[in-house]
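Support request, please re-run this one:
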Amino acid sequence: MADTKREIERKYEGPPTGGDPALPDLTRVPGVSAVIDKGVADLDATYYDTADQRLAAASLTLRRRTGGDDAGWHLKLPVSEGVRDEIRAPLSDTVPASLSALVRSRVREAELVPVVRLLSARDVRHLVDASGALLAEVSVDRVRAERLSGGTGAAEWTEIEVELADDGDPAFLDKVEKKLRKAGLARSSSKSKLARALSDTDTTNSTDTTKATKATKATKATKTTKATKKRDEPTGRAPRTAGDHVLAYLRTQLDAIIELDPAVRRDLHDSVHSMRVATRRMRSAFRSYGKILDRAVTDPIGEELKWLAGELGVGRDQEVLTERLTTALDGLPGALLTGPVRDRLRTWSQARGDGSRRHLIAVLDGGRYLDLLAALDGVVTDPPLLKAAAGDPSKVITKAVRKDFAKVSALVDQALGLAPGADRDLAMHEARKKAKRTRYAAEAAVPALGEPAAGLVRSMKSLQSLLGDHQDSVMAREALRDLAAQAHAAGESAFTYGVLYGREERRAAAVEAAFPGEWETVGGGSGI
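Re-run finished. Output below.
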């Protein structure tokens, strides 16, 4: 089983004049009562990556390490500057499946191979406070790097690493850094030991590397990599044409899908929702900007994005619905609670949600998902641009956004013209979906059109939120009817479900009453 540790650390190197960096007296750091010598640990780490270093390009590191008190496999995922999540798994001869799954969106079908070996003599000291509690671990690492693939280079260096204790205050690192800087030490120019090792042992002109590159180019994996690299490379100029702007938006969403993949697998908060939004944004952009990108190419990919969004929504929709009903129950006076309502809600929710997470992981492990990622790579690296793509964005993009807004306006008018009931519920739901699509189209337009597009984003988000609350009420009432029927069949009172149903009806009626005013506020004009 893998476990996770949040790692907050900083690395330092000596002055440019050379020589090994030396530690100053750290007992003079505010809050430090003692510096405890923990001895020297010999560490032997082999880092794995694809032959073309896809993990390194994304600042991910995967290693197998022996020595020290945390021997095993470690996968480090960047969180923010100086902060990484280290996912650990026990020692084994091959990369653990739990870790290889977390890099699958980047590795795809390529093989993970040893790229660098680091041999480190780590001289460890603990900084503790007056109670003996650990504040930070400081180590002086003498490192030897040996290239295992892509060349035969070697390098040696010494660096200082300061790692904050678990649940420590990051501000403490600033205090340590102040002392280190006074001693002539500076932040390392490399983000990690691996990054420095790859740079210092680079032998791209070697015969072995040339042969390896030729062999690799013949593989399907490299085709994917070339597309990925091209997607990630800066264009060297700001977007100028309508096509430039749309492709920049699409690249952002594709990057989000790839980066969120491991978070979804780890079941991190809001990751599923965020990944689902990115898929919807891409699909909406394909449809909204069909005069820029050939829909004969993008429509089939859009259908696959719809499939992925649906798979991501299976568990998410149930969570949202359960949370709404639970909150509603919490707001009821005790006198209105009759029967085992909470137990039935819990059982109902678990029955509907059972297996949804296992199913989602199976989807992310499946070939259909990998094929979709490859297709999206193709769109952003070799886009099916139409003639309008070369046009002035202030004209081409404006026209596309106005077209979407006109569709929202027509659907809103249709909904407002219907009497309350199922037909109006459906019309409001359709208006919500089109408002969301218009919002996404306007998001893509903001870099080109500025505040008018940003204003439309805000307006459509407000309308979408109002109509979303209405749709949630529709779904909640359907669930309450189901729960009431189950309770009745089991001989339980259905009274509480009826109370909640009535409250949802009033909530939906309040939304419907506010709908015309909301539309008058946000829909008086697109602003574009």
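Confidence is low (pLDDT under 50) at residues 205-226. Strands lie at 3-13, 34-49, 61-66, 72-80, 83-89, 113-128, 134-147, 154-164, 186-187.
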